[in-house]
């Protein structure tokens, strides 16, 4: 949160138990704000997660967050949002895979939990802002509106997973790490200087509610095994699988096809059909996407101008930018054309549009358009 005349705010710092959120809370307190730390209990049974789990919802994490709050010298609470998290994030994740789509639970968590359920509760209790350890920047314009921008350090930028935030949510968001032109090692050094125990704690890279990182196993336990066919683009049966939900568009490994393609080249997942439980595979060039249609657009501040316009787009959390032309149709559907074909684009993913460093907004990919190959 940026203001020309900074004032002391009541800030609720979401503390995951990791180093980034701890340093963010410390910086907010150091800036003179009245900070209270809160750890979100998102697992209905956090004790079931093994020691050393790679997510961020273990019982160990809540203890780490509490110790960090004690060092910073701020009040600390644990809020139970497990039921809301299960309904809005976990159940949605399972349903999306079951429907043949590839969701991003981190975006859903930011949209539905951290800047909805948590923010609503914070505002009801008289807090002015929710502070997190995300690397992004909120800019206050002269007209009082706010914009979300990429972090100063592109290597750590997390604006993609915040592209679902609307104007109201941005008005109460604080990202103290967004202007940091430092390496992660320097953030850890800062944590150590502040006496924060989490300074050497490894980063979490997996989906927080899948502690062992086995997404396919997690889905199999909930959706069951359902044998189906793996076919080529002509419909020829190449093998079988135990559930189409175990595949994603662009996947190469784990296809379990017993013989090589006639041309000797690798094959990739091109399509997932939950209706007939079929997975279609083919050559890499068949993954080329020239355009897409996305639904449920959400704008970070002011909406885009009417008519087609040129932006850059990001299609995954750690992906690069690509130039696109996008147009909002009937206020509900975003139609996007790529300047150059891109690969590995799957329905269910989010597309986030940028105007320079400014996040324009995001939408959920519904359908894609593939380039027709000669002789296909």
Automatic annotation (TrEMBL):
Cited Gene3D superfamilies: Adenine nucleotide alpha hydrolases-like domains, HUPs, Translation factors
Active site: 109, 208
Annotated localization: Cytoplasm
Catalytic activity: S-sulfanyl-L-cysteinyl-[protein] + uridine(34) in tRNA + AH2 + ATP = 2-thiouridine(34) in tRNA + L-cysteinyl-[protein] + A + AMP + diphosphate + H(+)
EC number: 2.8.1.13
Residues reported to bind ATP: 14-21, 40, 133
Region annotated Interaction with tRNA, chain positions: 156-158
Residue stretches making up the tRNA-specific 2-thiouridylase MnmA-like C-terminal domain: 290-365
UniProt keyword terms in alphabetical order: ATP-binding, Cytoplasm, Disulfide bond, Nucleotide-binding, RNA-binding, Transferase, tRNA processing, tRNA-binding
Gene Ontology biological process terms from the UniProt entry: tRNA wobble position uridine thiolation
Pfam hit, one: tRNA_Me_trans
GO cellular component, one term: cytoplasm
UniProt xrefs under PANTHER family: MITOCHONDRIAL TRNA-SPECIFIC 2-THIOURIDYLASE 1 (PTHR11933:SF5), TRNA 5-METHYLAMINOMETHYL-2-THIOURIDYLATE -METHYLTRANSFERASE (PTHR11933)
NCBIfam families: PRK00143.1, trmU
Cited function: Catalyzes the 2-thiolation of uridine at the wobble position (U34) of tRNA, leading to the formation of s(2)U34.
Similarity-based family: Belongs to the MnmA/TRMU family.
Protein's name according to its UniProt entry: tRNA-specific 2-thiouridylase MnmA
Organism whose genome encodes this protein: Streptomyces inhibens
Species lineage: Bacteria, Bacillati, Actinomycetota, Actinomycetes, Kitasatosporales
